[in-house]
Amino acid sequence: MPPSIDNQPERNIIVVGSGLAGLAMAVAATLRGFKVTVLEKAAKVGGAASYSGGQVWVAGSHVEEREGISDDAEAAAAYIRATGYEHPELIDEDAMYRWLETAPRAAKYFEEVGAAQWEIIPLADYYYPSAAGSCAKGRYLTSSCASSRLGSWKDRILISPHFPVGHPYSAVMDSGHNQVETERRESESAREETHLSAFGAGVQGASDSGAAADGSGRATPELLTFGTGVVGGFLAKALELGVTILTDQRAVRLETDESGRVVAVYGEGADATETRFAGDVVLCTSGIDWSPELVAKYWGIAEHAGSIAPRSLTGDGLRLAQSVGADIITWPVHNVPLIPGYATGDDEVPYAYCYEHALPHVFIVDSEGQRFCDDTQHGEIRRAALDPDDPHLPMFLVWDEEYHSKYALGPYIPGSTYPENVVSSAPTLSALAEKLRVNGDGLERTAEEFNAGALRGEDPRFGRGTNLKAKLWGGDPEHEPNANLGTVARPPFYGLTLKMCGAGINLTGIHVDTEGRALNEKGQVIEGLFATGACAAFTTSGTGYNSGYSLSRAMSMALLVTDVLDPETAAVV
Ligand SMILES: Cc1cc2nc3c(=O)[nH]c(=O)nc-3n(C[C@H](O)[C@H](O)[C@H](O)COP(=O)(O)OP(=O)(O)OC[C@H]3O[C@@H](n4cnc5c(N)ncnc54)[C@H](O)[C@@H]3O)c2cc1C
User: Fold this and answer.
1) Regarding predicted confidence, which is higher, 52 or 3?
2) What are 489-534's pLDDT values in tens digits?
3) Rounded Cα gap, residues 392 and 410, in angstroms
4) Which of 4, 6, 124, 429 is 20 to 30 A from 167, comparing alpha carbons?
5) In the structure, what pLDDT confidence band is assigned to residue 217 with cuts at 50, 70 and 90?
6) What is the distance between the alpha carbons of residues 258 and 342, in angstroms, rounded to a whole number?
7) Is 504 in the pocket of ligand 1 (CB under 6 A)?
């Protein structure tokens, strides 16, 4: 019989997963008098939320109000309706409203209790900027956190390898993502003489304290920003409240009583010993990204898939929920917000998120050597690449020496030698095409057409260089006449295969009701079992995912579940 922790089972809540959903749940429930235990499978806390951009999408927040921005849930609902109805059966209007109305309340609540200190990122709803209800500025919130608040946990939070943690958002908005990353890496390599053979390996954070590095080789900076900053604030609050957080503790099975109610979850430690944790169970385990079996089942593009999320996201929550009869709702893969990325050759961070495709002197082609979309934007690339009627996979990033001399590629600073297992190079476009197994004539024709437009700062076929976010964030603001357009003409030429990478947002997930209670196939509540964050199906927003929805839901659903568990105080919080 495994050891059991169940002294007061009716007040125990066992949270499975320590991303934003899990930590927000821990903070909210502890503040309402529950004894919360967080089980985290990985050695460090934070999940994909810690790796993320930290954009939290909230319409009508107190932060907008204090900045004089007029916005509300109705406008946000119009936006979701305009963008999320490709499959009407995948949206639940009641759940959508519940989330939209709860998000501003959650943002205010978590700020008041000291888990966040919100600021607005000056971004429009950039996935669908011209859709009804879209907002020019105000919905994107983020929060940073001094790492000293984490005490001895400072080195137990995942640091994002994908964003320049330590720098504020404003630096990225002013100079572009690539520029900030390049400067960070140049200063690091000058200081450390870092061997750049692997993505992120051996490099130090922007204003690092020299503390121990995390799994991706990044040390903990003094100021945590981006997703690491958002998670840092919630972690700091959870620790301050005395929440028990157990790392290397993988939830492996659920226990039900004779009525079918979930009464406990079993955790497996690093030494394979099992512990029984009694109480209501909240699954916050996020995506299926690193389960080849589930990727094949739900996405069907196994050979073209990768993930920029941590390796611990293997769909465990879906399996656990299914083991007690929960219903899973699935989305078509072309609606899932997969992001172009590429293999790095590094075991710790196997895929880099590709933001380079929005810079000048680069474009994306399919195996015919042809462009197929505005290749500055993730959403456009995904929709076109995975179009069920006209797919464009595999796809390739192609660039020239002009790019190589001016811009970084992931960890490879301008002018550095790319490793052969990551990048192919050749003196001519046709020789590069042969290496990439792309149609050479097609690639040469594409470059000719692209270059003619690039010289004028235009892309008549696909409108590259017209999206504001792609210019500000992804382009080179110094480049004339267009931040996103430069010729691909100077030899040698370079290329790599792009993958569609998961980011811990699968849309597919556990069917929950408006309050986060898990449902069975008949739509009945499974007592004692909840699912929040990215492991809960995105019925709140249907098919039109927008950046920031995931963290917003993760935070908001924590309040909804706590209200169900503690209805007496729900009205006053
Ligand atoms: C590079 C990148 C950028 C992103 N940018 C944004 C953004 O700006 N805005 C936004 O809204 N979203 C963004 N996302 C997506 C977002 O980060 C995720 O959807 C979000 O983190 C989901 O939150 P969560 O708490 O549900 O899951 P996660 O943050 O992924 O946490 C899940 C946790 O559960 C743990 N776990 C899994 N199985 C078990 C088990 N069996 N037992 C115990 N623990 C388990 C995992 O180890 C993990 O720590 C981004 C993602 C990435 C990778």
Assistant:
1) 52
2) 999 999 999 999 999 999 999 999 999 999 999 999 999 999 999 9
3) 24
4) 124
5) low
6) 49
7) yes
What distance in angstroms lies between residue 380's CA and the mean position of ligand 1's atoms?
23
Q: In which element (H, E) is residue 351 found? A: strand 351-353
Query: Rounded to the nearest whole angstrom, what is the distance from the C-alpha of residue 366 to the centroid of ligand 1?
Result: 30
**Residue 362 CB neighbour total at 10 angstroms:** 26
The two three-digit tokens of residue 333, written as one number? 């893969």
**Torsion, CA 216, CA 220, CA 410, CA 468, rounded to 10:** 130
Contacts of 276 (CB under 8 A, 6+ apart): 2, 3, 4, 5, 6, 255, 264, 265, 266
* Separation between Cα atoms, residue 382 and residue 530, nearest integer Å: 31
Mutate to test the pocket of ligand 1, among 52, 56, 355, 473 (most ligand atoms within 8 A of CB): 52
Q: Which of 162, 246, 551 to mutate to test the pocket of ligand 1 (most atoms within 8 A of CB)?
A: 551
Between the CA of 115 and the centroid of ligand 1 the distance, in Å, is 18
Structure tokens at 427: 């003196």
In sequence order, the 6+-apart residues with CB closer than 8 A to the CB of 71 are: 59, 60, 61, 64, 135, 138, 139
pLDDT score, position 1: 46
Q: How far is CA 348 from the centre of its chain?
A: 17
Distance of CA 134 to the CA centre of its chain: 21
State if residue 307 touches ligand 1 by the CB under 6 angstroms criterion. no
Q: Which residue has the least CA distance to atom 47 on ligand 1?
A: 312
Task: Specify the pLDDT at position 176.
Answer: 65
The answer to whether residues 34 and 13 touch, using CB atoms and an 8 Å cutoff, is: yes
**Buried-state track 185-214, b at ≥16 Cβ within 10 A, e below 16:** beebbeeeebebebbbbbbbbbebeeeebb
Atom of ligand 1 nearest to the CA of 536: 26
- Which two structure tokens, joined as six digits, stand for 9? 């089972």
List, in order, residues 6 or more apart from 259 with CB less than 8 Å away. Answer: 527
